[in-house]
Every structure is written in C-alpha cells, then in structure tokens.
Amino acid sequence: MHRHFVIHASNLTKIKFCDTEYYNTKGIYELPFPTNPTNGKHDYNECKGCQTTLRNFIINVNKKLESFPDCCEYHKNLKTLSYFNKQDFVRLADSIALKGIYARQHITNNLDKEDWYLDITNYLEYTIHSFGSFPEGFGEPFLFAAFLHDLLDFLNSNINTFPKQKIQKLIEFVTGYTTTKNVSKTDFNVLMSTYEKWLKIFPFELSFFKGAKEYFIQNIPILKSKPVYNPYLNISKAELQDKESLIKVLIERTNYLLTHINSFVLHEKGLINDPDSIKLEFVIKERKMKLEQGYVNLVKDEGEKYRKIIKEWFEDEKKFIDEIKPLLKNLESQKTQTKYDPPPDKISSIKNNFDRVSILEVFNHFKKGLIDKGFISEKELIEYIKQAFDKKIAPEILFRFTDVHSKQKVIKVFYDYYKNVAGKPHRQQTKYVELLSNYFEGYITQNVKTNFNK
Ligand SMILES: [Zn+2]
Ligand SMILES: [Zn+2]
Fold this sequence. Notes:
The strands form three sheets. The chain has a two-stranded antiparallel sheet with strand order 1-4. It has a two-stranded antiparallel sheet with strand order 2-3. Strands 5-6 form a two-stranded antiparallel ribbon. The chain is elongated and about 125 Å long. Strand 2 (14-17) and strand 3 (20-23) form a beta hairpin. It has 20 helices and six strands. It is mainly α and 454 residues long. It has four domains: 5-175, no CATH class; 188-263, no CATH class; 274-337; 343-450, no CATH class. It starts with a strand and ends with a helix. It has helices spanning 48-67, 73-76, 86-91, 93-110, 116-129, 144-157, 164-178, 181-185, 188-201, 212-218, 243-260, 263-268, 275-293, 302-338, 344-347, 359-371, 378-391, 407-421, 429-437, 445-451, and strands at 5-7, 14-17, 20-23, 28-30, 228-230, 235-237. Bound molecules: zinc ion (2 copies). Residues 42, 44, 47, 49-50 line the site of one zinc ion (ZN).
C-alpha cells in the first residue's frame, strides 16, 4: 500500500509535554489510496447487482468531480494549497468507486467467520483510512461521507438477509464515524494537559516516590486499550482515552500509589528509619499543595472575603510552623549527634598495639562517652588514641577533660571499655585503669582503681 502524505504546517500543532515535543495530526493532507478486494464466495465481478451498483458509483464519482473542489466552502480552500492537484482525484476516480463495492463484498463473505466483527471492522477501517485526509478546515476526505452513507444503506437494506444482530453491530460501528463526536473526543492537547496536571499535583518529591516520576513521564496512559493489529492496514491501533476516562485512570493510579506506598506499609516492612524527616516532608508538601491551590472564599462582601482569606492563611502558617518546629529541632540534634560519625580517614592509620579491639570500635566507644558528653574534642580523642593505643607512651603534657562535674562519670567510661568492649581480660585491670590515669591530668592510678567498678 503506497500512501502519499503532506503535512500541512500551519495546521500542525506542536505540543510541549514534559520537555518532549509531540505533533498532533490535524494538519495532514493525504491522497486517497486504492484498496484491494478480498476473496470469497461472493465475487462482484460475477454479480449483476454489484456491477450495476459499481456503474452507478462511477457515475456519481465523476459527477462529484465536475464541481470538486468548488462543491463547498471547505473544499474550495484546497485550491490555496500548493500541493493540491485535482488531477490526482480524477486519476483515482475508479478506485474510489470500487471501495464501496469491495467493502460490501468483504462484509457479505465474512459474516460467518468466528472473528467476524474484528475482521470486518479491520477491513472497514482500512477502507476508511484509504480515503486519505485534508487538513482541518479543508473539508471531509473526498466522498468519504457518501461512502459511509452508502454503506449504512447497504447494511440497513440487508438487515433481514444477514444475521440481524451482527448487522446491527456493524451499523453501530459505521455510525460512530458519521458523528463528529469521535473526532473532538480524542483531543491530544486536552489529554496531555490533563496528564501533566496530575504529574504536577502528585507529591512525587516525597522520598517515598523518588524515581517514580521518571517512570510516569515515560508511561503515559493515553491509550484506552491494548493496541490491536489490523492486517489490512498493517498497523496496530488503539483507542485514545478521552478526558473523563483518563481522569478515571489517574484517580485509580493515585489511589494505588497512596495505598501501596505509605508510612504504614513501609513501617511493616521495617523500612522507616527516620520518621521525623518523613513527617517533615509531609508537612512541607501539604503546605506547598495548599499554597499552590490558593485561597478562595465564597463570601460575597469583598472586604470580608479578603479578611477571611488572610485569616485562613494566618491559621495555616501558624499550624505549619507549629508542626515543623519540633521536627526541625529533632533533626538538628540528630545532625549534631552524627556530625562526628567515624572519620575513617583520620583513624585508619592508627594501629592498636594495646589490645585486640579494632580502632574504630575504640573510637566509637570513647566518642560516645567523651565527645558526645562534651568532655573532649574529636581532635583530642584521636590524639589520645594514637598515644595510648598505638605508641603506648604518655605525652609530655597530659590530656585534660573539660566540663567534668563528676570524675566518676569519666571513670565509668573507661571501666565500661574494660568490661564491655575489651571483654574484661583476665588480670589486666590495672592496664585499663592506666589508660585513664597515665594519660589524663587529675586521675591517680590508685584512686581510679578503687573506684573503677563503682
Ligand atoms: Zn453482488
Ligand atoms: Zn465539497
């Protein structure tokens, strides 16, 4: 099948959607192409009735050609297109007349088939496409309406000869093409902007849905059904959503995402480690949605309206601040706690020549007991570990704790290290006491020893 297209640029709308450009097809000029008949029991070549009809069709086509394109206001516009050539249609006159005969023959021969409906509608669609198209505003394809009309006449006049229910279904199918409803229903622009709106409103920024947006940008639910292959046209076709059915899909999708990915489900799976930052995200997103939605009020009086709107805004702001304040505080203290997370580069060169505990464990234990309590800085602790565990030599100037109100608290950190981290090695308690008393000012071995396990 050879198809001849011209894309009529001025009628072509470019749609920008999520940084990708699409073209809609309202601006296509396509010449009709001849269709092929299918074989079967009934053969129009040998049927007197069909031959008469064909002769009439040819007369009609030629009659129409006499006035075309001056036949109507719309077709008259065709003369302004540089690529319009009436001779193309004159040349195709016979093939246009044959389309109707072939369609009648295909219906007659295939009504008994198991997949009769799919097969016949595929052939009819192929025939419908074969009429080509004019850009929007340039009228219907040449003799397209006449073809549909004749086909309906044929079906109606055979409603008692053929299986009635089948003919009625085909009448329904053809009638669908005679109403303009079908055309406006599938406005691509409307679908795309409906979808884009959903993408914008759905809270994809939440870390829950991270990565999902990319998927939904690529997978636009623009088709109502799975594509069905049409062997006559050699293309797969699917029905486009209309706005209502798309919205229905998007509501289902929203519901699915919200019910399958949420705090409860993640908690059940043990995936919530940081509830404060998740809640903070919720609170912020909720506020953002409200701000995007804007403030409206139905009160009639203007002054009253403004006041009400502003009052509502104040309430929301206060609520928002109240909600984020504790969360921010918690997150801030978590941050300061984790600020000293193991600095592997700083301790990796230190060796433990003192006992068998890893340096990271040594560091973590004393970090918790000394740095986090504010007794010593990270720099000092690392320096201490170097001296006490690696070199095993006391520095000339001993280390000092700051802000210690009870020496016992410090002693306990060292006792815990001896008992819990090192595993209370047999007969080595003094060695562990000296980890404190040999290196820090103000701690005497004997005193520490006496108070070690208190
Ligand atoms: Zn016939
Ligand atoms: Zn016309």
